[in-house]
Amino acid sequence: MPMPMPWSAWPRNVRLLMAMRAARSVGQGAMVAAFALYLHVLGWGATTIGAVLTAALLLSASLTLLVGPLSDRGGRRAFLIGYDLLQALAALVALLTSTPWLLVAAAVVGAFGRGANGSAGAFAPIEQAWLAIELPMHQRARVFSANSAVGFAGMGVGALLAALPAWWLGPALDAADYRWLFALPLAGALCSFGLLLRTREPVLPAAPIAPHPAAEHRLRQGENRLLARLMLANALNGLGIGLTGPLIAYWFAIRFQSGLDHIGLGLALGFAVAAASAWLAGRVADRHGILRTVVWMRAAGLLMLVAMPLVPWFWGAMALYVLRGASNRGTAGVRQALAAGLTRAERRGLASTVQNLSLQLPRAIGPLLGGALFHAGYLALPFYLGAALQLGYLLLFVVFFRDTEAARAPGRQGAG
């Protein structure tokens, strides 16, 4: 089994990309904890809140479809610079006004409440492809998992910071108290922009000798089949996550009549545990392979998702949420590593786009459906529907990828 790289030996661009994720993740964590509650304080209903989150996810998915394949032609750094500047503008608008049409526009552009784990949102495929270019296959599971862990840790800090006003001023915050929290994503975007200026445009490895056209056609067909399978499996996963994930703070608020002081603390704990789980998942995948790691962890998360709405007290349900998040979110990095290993280097922007888009589009539908069900009083049904969809995802994941090189344990992989 290849020896893992120490942090100091990781490429400079990899370390800078991870620092950028840390910077962005603090603001994203604050928005996961507070944004839906802010809209609730403004008097917006569950269906309207779900519609805003859906619009943000749909815009993100549309941009992903465009920028991922384009980034394979170069210019990854310029795309990410544009993303950070847009995020800074959106956060500034939300900080300065609560005028509904301006707030909706900022929320859709800034994807507030989405919880992208510190990634560049719609431009996340660019980051994932960039990381894959910098790393050999046998190092990707561990580094991608460390990257996810950094993002979750930052989101935990952000959720904790979001809860501070409620601890100081009392749980009954007004809209003006919430608006100050948009300073966190603003600062994160500006910090990420500064770090990005220190990176160097990634250089693709030298292209191998072009295969015979017939062999190239077979290679592309094989890669395309794997990408189509990835799309189908991820569609179930994305819809299952979207039904409850973006609205989880709102669900805790209406289910238990809890405020941001308790919800922010619980979400912060959930992100912290997810960070540890993501770090651990990379090491488990080094030994047992990506497939087994995903199956073990996601199966445990399914049981907790089903149990959450059955618990009648806040901290019991929050404990299940924390543990379920550790099981589900902890696999994010290794799943991204698998997607990056399904194609050759020159098509990794496309592979990362498929990975993100096939999650985002179905996930975009989830908040609208989940919000409507919550508004109608069905506080448990979205959890059960989500669990059924994620079970389907897990079964397809095993069937589709058990024979791929990217899913096997490193000792059985090539170093390609």
Structure characterization notes:
75% of the residues lie in helices and 0% in strands. It contains 16 helices and no strands. The C terminus is likely disordered.
Q: What topology does this entry show?
A:
Elements: H1 12-41, H2 46-71, H3 76-96, H4 100-110, H5 124-134, H6 137-169, H7 175-179, H8 183-196, H9 213-242, H10 248-256, H11 260-288, H12 290-307, H13 314-329, H14 332-340, H15 348-375, H16 381-401
Helix pairs in contact: 1-6, 1-8, 1-10, 1-11, 2-4, 2-15, 3-4, 3-8, 5-15, 6-11, 6-14, 9-15, 9-16, 11-12, 11-13, 12-13, 12-16
The Cα radius of gyration reads 20 Å
For the largest beta-sheet, the strand count, sense and barrel status come to: none
Helix percentage range:
over 70%
Mean pLDDT score: 85
Kindly state the number of beta strands: 0
Strand percentage lies at under 5%
Judging from the principal axes of the Cα atoms, what is the shape?
A: globular
Distance between the termini: 14 Å
Low-confidence stretches: 411-416
What pattern of helices and strands is seen along the backbone? HHHHHHHHHHHHHHHH
**Structural class by helix and strand composition:** mainly alpha
Q: What's the helix count? A: 16
